[in-house]
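ok, trying the design again with the full structure, not the truncated one.
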């Protein structure tokens, strides 16, 4: 396992602690904590009266990256590592790829929003892209357990913060870019540029797999670039058909069937099939495995209720919400209802946009709390309703009661969408993490009926 740490809370006896200096924190302030947990060496930038051996270097982050690369990249070079970046589709695409490879008898792990998987789920993760020490530790653990393939979500913030530094990628997939994280990146161009570093981490023969239909793909063109999409590319989608059983579509003239619904899932599947083809997996094997791939937790997660459907989905951006509703419209026989909210202390500009998309496209919505963080939930709701002239909604801040109200609307052949949190198991209010899961709430409410 990795014997060097940059987070004092994760230090174990015998570890080296590297004091990183960031924008809002300084690792030098946590040296005593690291020593108390058993650190036996420090790497620092400041002279001090330290009680254990230490080394002073000009840049601790550079030291850390060099140490990890020199000691562990020999193992990573033996692995096939696939990175997925984009606003929407990262989780589903990466999860589908690892699921497909495992079903094909190729041991593949997954690191991303819904956790750390080695076939089955091993653990949750604090971020989509864990810090660089954790990332190396997860990869080396996978290697030691015989997993030589890894599908990794590469978030823009994770890339910008150096959490994927020095990791060599064999494939880098760009899904799409739409409005999100502007509280952090400020502009769409900054957001797009933050993702370019993934494509700079490709191995010499690595492949950039880009969404042909997304205008931001020009940022990610590499030495060896392939495209997938509806409008063109090396892997071109055509003849898409939907039914209540799923989707049938063609990719370069070959027909594939999947239980997944929606154009956005065809994009996800197209990227996965393209990567499998680039890996020289037989086309017949890909056709067979595609039939058996299913959503990760919290992505279009279906709960049947009488002759109605309740779908739990992580959609929390204008683009994702629009695509989920458009997909449901194609199969819903009656009315569509939505329960949703917006995250506090994050990009405020998307709040009224999301509300307009929902209210303009469904019978009725219940506006509720997402993760307020440090904001008053009612202030978030006020932002969501700014400029709104529609009245097909009600506000219920308590999320479980909002879901209960949404379920009460259902009559015959209706669909309720519970959006925004998907697989998540807590609601974050200030510094508190309140246990809550949308699917569990739905099942509890149905059981009470």
């Amino acid at each position: 396992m990795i014997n060097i740490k940059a987070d004092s809370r994760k230090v174990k006896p015998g570890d080296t602690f590297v004091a990183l200096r960031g924008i809002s924190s300084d690792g030098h302030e946590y040296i005593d904590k690291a020593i108390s947990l058993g650190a036996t060496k420090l790497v620092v930038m400041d002279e001090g009266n330290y009680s254990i051996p230490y080394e002073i270097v000009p840049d601790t982050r550079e030291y850390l990256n060099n140490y990890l690369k020199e000691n562990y990249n020999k193992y990573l070079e033996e692995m096939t590592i696939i990175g997925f970046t984009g606003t929407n589709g990262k989780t589903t695409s990466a999860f589908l790829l690892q699921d497909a490879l495992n079903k094909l008898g190729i041991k593949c792990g997954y690191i991303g929003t819904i956790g750390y998987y080695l076939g089955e789920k091993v653990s949750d993760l604090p971020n989509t892209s864990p810090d660089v020490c954790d990332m190396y530790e997860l990869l080396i653990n996978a290697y030691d357990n015989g997993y030589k393939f890894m599908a990794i979500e590469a978030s823009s913030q994770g890339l910008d913060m150096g959490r994927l530094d020095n990791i060599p990628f064999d494939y880098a997939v760009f899904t799409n870019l739409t409005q999100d994280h502007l509280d952090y990146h400020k502009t769409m161009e900054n957001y797009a540029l933050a993702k370019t570093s993934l494509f700079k981490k490709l191995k010499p023969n690595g492949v950039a797999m880009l969404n042909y239909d997304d205008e931001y793909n020009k940022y990610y063109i590499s030495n060896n670039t392939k495209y997938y999409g509806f409008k063109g590319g090396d892997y071109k989608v055509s003849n898409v058909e939907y039914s209540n059983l799923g989707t049938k579509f063609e990719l370069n003239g070959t027909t594939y069937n999947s239980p997944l619904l929606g154009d956005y899932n065809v994009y996800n599947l197209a990227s996965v099939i393209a990567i499998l083809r680039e890996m020289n997996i037989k086309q017949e094997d890909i056709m067979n495995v595609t039939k058996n791939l299913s959503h990760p937790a919290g992505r279009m997660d279906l709960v049947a209720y009488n002759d109605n459907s309740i779908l739990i989905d992580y959609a929390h951006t204008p683009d994702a919400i629009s695509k989920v509703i458009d997909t449901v419209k194609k199969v819903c026989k009656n009315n569509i209802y939505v329960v949703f909210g917006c995250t506090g202390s994050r990009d405020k500009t998307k709040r009224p946009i999301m509300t307009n998309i929902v209210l303009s496209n469904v019978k009725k919505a219940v506006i509720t709390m997402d993760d307020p963080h440090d904001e008053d939930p009612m202030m978030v709701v006020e932002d969501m309703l700014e400029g709104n002239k529609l009245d097909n909604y009600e506000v219920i801040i308590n999320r479980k009661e909002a879901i209960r109200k949404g379920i009460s609307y259902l009559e015959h052949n209706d669909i309720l969408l519970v959006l925004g949190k998907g697989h998540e198991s807590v609601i974050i209010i200030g510094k508190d993490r309140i246990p809550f899961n949308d699917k569990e709430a739905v099942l509890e409410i149905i059981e009470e009926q």
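Keeping the full-length input from now on. The mean pLDDT is 91.
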